[in-house]
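Each record in this resource describes a single protein on a pair of labelled lines. The shape at a given residue is found from the number at the same position. The record below illustrates this layout:

***
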Amino acid sequence: MSILSVCDLDVRHGLLPAVRGVSFNLAKGEVLALVGANGAGKTTLLRSVAGAHLPASGQILLHGEDVTAVPSHKRIAKGIALVPEGRRLFSQMTVEENLLLGGSAGRKGEWTVDRIFDAFPNLKPRRHAKASHLSGGEQQATAIGRALMSNPDVLLLDEVSLGLSPLVVDRVYQQLQGLLSSGTTIVLVEQDLSRAMNVASRVICMLEGNIVLDRPANGTTREDVTRAYFGLHRSTAERSVS
């Protein structure tokens, strides 16, 4: 059984369709890179999976259970955690307080404050610093750590490198390597195509709310994804849904 199934999902912003008939299944331990141009529907899709944006139609199943209408805070307790675009930390709370808040879902698992500091050692000396005093990379690490504190079955990472310098992005991804190879099921939205394809086991490309390419990362070329990204794919037959 798939750990996560998205079935014929339609999501709108008012009357404007943002996600159109999207379907995919995720197996435990898959790392899915979700790519596409700005406005393709990637963030809206992630927010819908996390329960922050309810769909107009379709289903979202977690471990076979329909969670489509389950609110976001209850979805966290069921095992879905989102690291949102822009981090959205509580700026006047310390790093440790933000992490402890992430653990308030009460899910049992291996992620603790100490393990977060082991995974992101740059946070350890900043343990008692307010989030507003952190660098961009430290804020991103704290946001990822806060999500991990809920011991999720599915981790959704939205725009990990957004607003960070290339050097800081390298450091964040170095710290993520252990997580990416740990068997955690991850959906990663990333504008840096090369970086996304390097860490993913599978790539989905979205265009105007639709999936236009869905393939294993191994054997998929940058040219394949680029053609889909810009709508140059030859036909919908090029899409191969696993």
Remarks:
- Strands lie at 4-13, 16-26, 31-35, 57-62, 65-66, 80-83, 154-158, 185-189, 202-207, 210-216.
- The first strand starts at residue 4 and ends at 13.
- The radius of gyration is 17 Å.
